[in-house]
Design goal:
Layout: H1 2-18, E1 22-27, E2 41-43, E3 65-66, E4 69-70, H2 71-80, E5 84-87, E6 111-113, E7 119-121, H3 127-137, E8 140-145, H4 152-163, H5 170-177, E9 188-191, H6 204-217, E10 228-232, H7 239-248, E11 256-263, H8 278-305, E12 312-320, H9 339-354, E13 359-365, E14 375-378, E15 381-384, H10 386-394, E16 401-402, E17 405-408, E18 411-414, E19 417-420, E20 422-428, E21 434-440, E22 447-454, E23 461-466, E24 486-487, E25 491-494, E26 497-502, E27 506-512
Parallel strand pairs: 1-22, 2-5, 2-13, 5-8, 8-9, 9-10, 10-11, 11-12, 12-13
Antiparallel strand pairs: 1-17, 3-4, 6-7, 14-15, 16-20, 18-19, 20-21, 21-27, 22-26, 23-24, 23-27, 25-26
Bound molecules: alpha-L-arabinofuranose.
Alpha-L-arabinofuranose binds near residues 89 and 317.
Amino acid sequence: MKHLLLFTLAACFIITIAAAQNTVVIDAGAAKDTISKNIYGHFAEHLGHCIYDGFYVGTNSSIPNKNGVRLDVIEALRKLKIPVLRWPGGCFADTYHWKDAIGPEDKRKPIENVTWGNIREDNSFGTNEFLDMCELLGADPYLAVNVGGGTVQEAAEWVQYVNHANGTGYLTDMRKQNGRSTPWHVKYWGVGNESWDCGGHMDADYYVNEFKKYATFMTSYGNSEGLFRIAVGPGSEDYKWTETVMSKIPLRMIDGLSVHHYSVINWSNKGSATAFSEAEYFKTMSEAWRLDNFITRNSAVMDKYDPERKVALVVDEWGGWYNVEPGTNPAFLYQQSSMRDAMIAGLSLNIFNNHCERVRMANLAQTINVLQSVILTNKEKIVLTPTYHVMEMYNVHQNAVMLPLKITSNDYVLNGQKLTAISASASRDKNGAVHISLVNIDAGKEQTITVTLGGIAATTVTGRILKSAHLQDHNTFEQPNTVTPVPFSGVRLNGQQLTVTLPPFSVAVLELK
Ligand code: AHR
C-alpha cells in the first residue's frame, strides 16, 4: 500500500513536470505608461559602409536616389516607421568637426577617419545631408556632439546653425547660403559618446563638469520644446557612473541618460555571425537577457534622484556583435544577421516595452551594413535582415499604451544551464487594437503559452510569426526571402483566454480586436 502511494505521488510529480505551463497574465486595467515610438529608433555612424554605399550613394550614382540617398533604403525604413536616427557616431562623434562637412562639396575638408580604419572621409555627407534625409524618412534626428575632441563653442555653434530661425550672426547666414532658410529644429542632442572610453577616457566627475559646461551653452533658440540633452551613462554594470551623473547634474539640465548594451559572447573572439553552435546561441541569449537587469539597476539609481522619472533612459546602442564577415575590413564591423539576431531583437524590444516608464528611446546598432543591421547593401542590391522583420512586426507598439503583464515561463536548458524561455509584451493602440508580442528563445522545444486577457474584450485574433528551420538561417543577396514573416496559425481565442503554440526560436506578434 505504502509503495502504491509513493508510486502514485511520483507519477503525479512527473506528470506535473511534463505539463509545466507557460502563462502570461495581462492586466489591462493597470495600464498607465506609453511605449514611446522612439524605442524603435536606429543609429547610423560614419563607419564602414553604413553611410557611404549604405544610406548615401551621392547624386551622380546610377542607383536611384533622392539627393544622394538611396530610394530603396528610404522605402524600407519608412515601412519600419523609423522614429529617430542617431548620428554621426558612436566613437566617430568625438572626432567629428561639423564645419568640415557643410557648404559646396568641393570646398569640404576631407579627413582621415581615425576611429574606423583610417580611411579617407570626404565629408560629402554632412549636417545638411543628414538632416534633409531625416525629413525624407520622417524620422527625428538625434545628433551626438563632439565632447572628447571638440569644443563647447563648436557644439554651441552647431545648435545655432541647425536651430536658430532668425539669427543675426554668420551661422544663420551660412545655413541660408547652404540652401536651407528654415531651421530643422533638432530636439535630441547627445553630449558625448562613451566618454569613459573612446570619448575621452574620462572619469565620471570630470564628465559631469564637461556635461554641465556643454549643456549651459547649447541653448534652444526659441524652439518651444527646448533641447533634449542626453548625458553619457555606462556601457557595462558600472552603476557608480550612473550614480555620479544623476546625483551631480541638476535635473533642469539633463533630459536623458544614454546606456549601451551589446550581446557579445566573448569580446576577444566574438564568433561567426552565421556559423555558430547552440552553445554560442545560448550565451548570446543570456547576454540579451542581461539587458533586463541592466535597465532595472540603472532605473533604480535614477529613481533615487529623479523619482518623477523626468529623465529618460536612452539605450542608444544595442544589438548583437560578432566577428566581421570573412574577407571584409575588420574596422568596418560588417556582419550578417541571422535568426539569432531576430531573437535578440524580439527579446530586447519586449524588455524595452515593459520598461517604458523609464526607457523612452533606444537605437539599434547600426542601421545598414554595420553590426546588427536591418538592411544590407551591395552596389544596387539590398536585402532586409530577420531583424528588419522583427522591427517591422513590432512597430504596432509605437506610441501605444503598455499593458502590464506577468509571465511564468519554462526554462530553456542547455548543458545544465537555464534561461527563461518566454518573453512577452503587450499594448493597446489609439484605435483600441491590442498587440501582444511573444518570443520563444528555446532552440529545441516549442512552447505552449496560456495568455489571460485581463480587461481585454476581443472577438478576433490574427498574427504573424518569424521562424525558420535553422537558427543560422539568414537572408542573402541571392536568396533575400529565406526568413520573412508569415501568417500565424498557432493561436486560439477562447473568451478571456488565448492558447498560443510557438515553435522553437520564433517571434510572433498577435493582434486582438
Ligand atoms: O557601434 C560601434 C561602436 O560601439 C560605437 O562607435 C561605440 O559607441 C561603441 O563602442
